[in-house]
Amino acid sequence: MQRKPLSFPKSSPELDHYADIIRSGRYFRKISKSHLKEMLRQSDLITLNADEYLIRKDQNNPPELIVLLEGSLAVTSEAQFIMRLNNPGDLVGELSVIAGESNHFADVISEEQSKVVIFPYQLFKAADDDTEVSVAYLVFSHILAEKLKHATAQSLLKKNVRSQKDSSIVIGILETDKKSRALISSTLGKIWNKANVIQIESFQDFLEKPFENRFDLLIVDPENISGKKSKNDSIQKITDICNSFSAPIMVISRFCRKEENRIFLAELGVKDFLIKPFAEFDLQHALTKLRKDHYRQKELEQVVIEADTDKLTGLANRRRLDEFLDALVTLFPEEKQSFSLIMADVDHFKYYNDAHGHQMGDIVLSSIGSILKSRIRRGDLAARFGGEEFVV
């Protein structure tokens, strides 16, 4: 890894070149070249070889904003691929800059020979009582706003998978002790009899097919986890998997006896924990609370779905369609993923309505909605545009 400061004079062609590259990126297009050049003079240029680490999460690196100039970077955690940065202007490290301290939860490795620009944390720092802030601070605020805009657009496009009201609840019990598994399963049968309970005997069994069962809740005892990784690393691996599909975790273990372990679990987002040995009432009480939280969350999700759904046809409504199209337009300049737009209406619908009445007309519209829902692919959106008009 080669690192050198970019303290060029104002007329440097190389500085102009780097500024042009960064301004071509999605987050920097509205930033003036002169402001960007001023920031670049306070940055460092790093050249990386293929397979060279830029960030290791176990190293206490200073908080820095990293912007890609050329090449490709992979973000990984526990050897699992998370994302790829391969467009000029892509960035990483903004969370550590916001926190003001080393806050790396993943490794960043160069996939090929790459160049990045490093902006130090001090460049974006502002005291609470400051009445004026630097240009760099304003630029950083703009970058965060643009990144949030793109992240929101991507989230809206992924929002098409809708939960089913009658979908069964899947609860996993990751516990090596047979008696404990049986007791927890029996208690679940009493207070959550609609749940599909899956018992997992070993940590290795869970890791072999982590996404085979998309759990609504996972109950874990990490005390007897065995393997090459430390216990804390194994617990973090479990929470990372469950967080990927928003499944809460409950830990029932002697591991919870120490306060430092409970703090560690809470920081990972563990929903609840229970110390072994425990009274059966305590287990029932904790599981009852989790059951209530689960159904309360499902009710909130259903409210959101109904707010986005046309009541007559069951398709997305105009509000949801507008959000979806806005997300497509936001992401298209960078991702260049082509998409098709189909608009259709029902021929002679007004005459049918007048001849047979509005109730029969509603049946026609509802039937068309059912046909569209059954024919579109995952990720596509079918919406009622208004009246007898539809959009796919």
Automatic annotation (TrEMBL):
Pfam families found in the cross-reference section: cNMP_binding (PF00027), GGDEF (PF00990)
Domain (Response regulatory): residue spans on this chain: 170-291
Record-given protein name: Response regulator receiver modulated diguanylate cyclase
Family annotation (SMART domains): GGDEF
InterPro entries: CheY-like_superfamily, cNMP-bd_dom, cNMP-bd_dom_sf, Diguanylate_Cyclase, GGDEF_dom, Nucleotide_cyclase, Rev_trsase/Diguanyl_cyclase, RmlC-like_jellyroll
GO biological process, one term: phosphorelay signal transduction system
GGDEF domain mapped to chain residues: 337-392
PROSITE patterns: CNMP_BINDING_3 (PS50042), GGDEF (PS50887), RESPONSE_REGULATORY (PS50110)
Single Gene Ontology MF annotation: diguanylate cyclase activity
Domain Cyclic nucleotide-binding: 27-125
